[in-house]
Amino acid sequence: xxxxxxxxxxxxxxxxxxxxxxxxxxxxxxxxxxxxxxxxxxxxxxxxxxxxxxxxxxxxxxxxxxxxxxxxxxxxxxxxxxxxxxxxxxxxxxxxxxxxxxxxxxxxxxxxxxxxxxxxxxxxxxxxxxxxxxxxxxxxxxxxxxxxxxxxxxxxxxxxxxxxxxxxxxxxxxxxxxxxxxxxxxxxxxxxxxxxxxxxxxxxxxxxxxxxxxxxxxxxxxxxxxxxxxxxxxxxxxxxxxxxxxxxxxxxxxxxxxxxxxxxxxxxxxxxxxxxxxxx
Length: 280
Prior knowledge:
Elements: H1 17-40, E1 48-50, E2 56-58, H2 59-75, E3 80-83, E4 87-88, E5 97-105, H3 107-112, E6 118-125, E7 128-136, E8 141-146, E9 150-155, E10 161-162, E11 175-177, H4 181-186, H5 190-199, E12 202-204, H6 208-217, E13 222-225, H7 230-233, H8 236-242, E14 246-248, H9 256-259, E15 262-265, H10 270-277
Parallel strand pairs: 3-5, 11-12, 11-13
Antiparallel strand pairs: 1-2, 3-4, 5-6, 6-7, 7-8, 8-9, 9-10, 13-15, 14-15
């Protein structure tokens, strides 16, 4: 189970100086990526295509990932990169340091003009997500977290504020974001989701990256979904963890990057939620 670390009060400091440099790099890349994505958001000539899995990809997704790869290759030439659009550049085996990027999480929102989309950029070291940046420029928000650093949110040009999950300890008072009813149904867990919805105070489907960042902010207490890829997950984990939350698979396992299912909670509710949603 991935538990919280004790954060510092300084958004520019981590316990590991090298990780601090990596975080500064990731934040700079996010700022550049946001400019490209915003320029293509709601563009009349946006090129939208279907990938073999029937998901959408736009010229903005590809442009952003190319930019991220170019800047990482220049600044960290020894690191591996895994991206949603252009795959992995690593040889067989688990790389020591791997950057994982989803150039636009929520592409379907991006295409429809819904502002809930953004860059997910993570550094995974020896299989553990140690740093994550989540940037949603259409919402005017950027979240980040790194091991020993805490979790932070910048809204517009305001000073960053440190994040902390909620203190809600009773399921009957909890707010849950389940993302997609169809996803739970396809996973054979719609009955568990219905049981959970009856046990909690509120259910919503904020969707995509926003569900998990609302959890890190303390506005949502539980978020979870199925059918995820490593680039959907890796950047979320350090932010939630450093905000004091708990992250596992929907069956309580640790290997969230490989499982494809994600359960994030404020920690207080994790065991109770698992008792409802985990496979029998």
